[in-house]
Design brief:
By secondary structure, the chain is mainly beta. It is built from three helices and 13 strands. The protein is globular and about 55 Å long. Keywords: Signal.
C-alpha cells in the first residue's frame, strides 16, 4: 500500500462488509448497509492508538445525503453527523462500541470508510509512535497496528513544522542506516516541494512508504505505511 494515506489503504482481503463486521453474537456490532453497497475489509483486528478497532471501505450506490438518511432511518436520533475537510462523518454509539461512517461524495455515488471501535472501560495508555524515529517536536496523531497480518503492518500519522524536504532527508538517512533501501531516488522532492513521496524496501518483502504533505503552513503531515 505504498504512497497511500492512513484510512485509505491496507486492503488486506476482499469481502462484503457485512461479512467483515459480523463476528459472533454479542461481540462486535454488525453495521447495516444499503442494498447495492459493496465493501472491502481493511482489518478485522487492529489497534487504533491502543484501542481495538475494525475497519472496512465501502462503495455506496447513493449520494452522501442519501447515505446519511439511510443511517438516520437505521439508528434514529442516536446519530451524530459532522463535516470535516470535505468529508462527512456519521457516528453512532452502540453498546460498548462506537461506529463511524466516513463519507466522500463521488457524483451520484459515495465512498465510505466504516470503523467500529471498542470503547475501553478505562483510559488506554499507549505510547504512540514507539520504536519509530521522529524529529524533535513531532506530534504523533495516530498509530495503527494491523494484528491480522504476519508482518507487523503499521500506519503512523504525524505532524511537525519541518518542511517535507527536511523530513525526507531526515528519514532517508536514518532508515538507510537501519537497512532500508530506496526503491528510487526521491529527486523530485525539492526544498520548495509541498509534497514528497518516498518508497523503501527492507529485508524480505518488507516495504515502507512515506507521504509528506505541507498542510496548513507551517505544518507538515507525515503518513508512514509499513508492511
Amino acid at each position: 500500500m505504498r504512497g497511500s494515506h492512513a484510512y485509505r489503504g491496507r486492503l488486506l482481503a476482499a469481502s462484503l462488509l457485512a461479512l467483515a463486521l459480523a463476528p459472533p453474537v454479542g461481540a462486535w456490532p454488525k453495521v447495516p448497509l444499503p442494498d447495492g453497497a459493496s465493501g472491502q475489509a481493511v482489518s478485522k483486528n487492529m489497534l487504533y492508538n491502543g484501542v481495538p478497532m475494525r475497519a472496512s471501505q465501502v462503495s455506496f450506490p447513493m449520494s452522501v445525503d442519501d447515505a446519511i438518511e439511510f443511517y438516520r432511518r437505521q439508528w434514529g436520533s442516536e446519530v451524530v453527523v459532522d463535516r470535516l475537510d470535505g468529508k462527512t462523518i456519521v457516528g453512532h454509539l452502540e453498546g460498548k462500541h462506537y461506529v463511524t461512517v466516513e463519507l466522500t461524495g463521488m457524483g451520484s455515488r459515495s465512498q465510505g470508510t466504516v470503523g467500529v471501535m471498542e470503547l475501553p472501560d478505562k483510559p488506554v495508555e499507549a505510547e504512540l509512535g514507539k520504536g519509530f524515529d521522529k524529529p524533535a517536536n513531532t506530534e504523533v496523531v495516530s498509530d495503527i497496528r494491523y494484528l491480522d497480518t504476519s508482518n507487523d503492518a503499521r500506519t503512523l500519522v504525524m505532524k511537525n513544522r519541518l518542511s517535507p524536504y527536511v523530513n525526507m532527508r531526515y528519514y532517508v538517512q536514518r532508515l538507510q542506516m537501519r537497512g532500508w533501501k530506496l526503491e528510487r531516488d526521491p529527486e523530485q522532492c525539492l526544498a520548495s516541494s509541498n509534497e514528497c513521496v518516498v518508497n523503501l524496501a527492507g529485508s524480505g518483502d518488507a516495504r515502507l512508504s512515506l507521504a509528506l504533505t505541507r498542510d496548513q503552513p507551517p505544518e507538515t503531515v507525515i503518513v508512514v505505511n509499513i508492511e
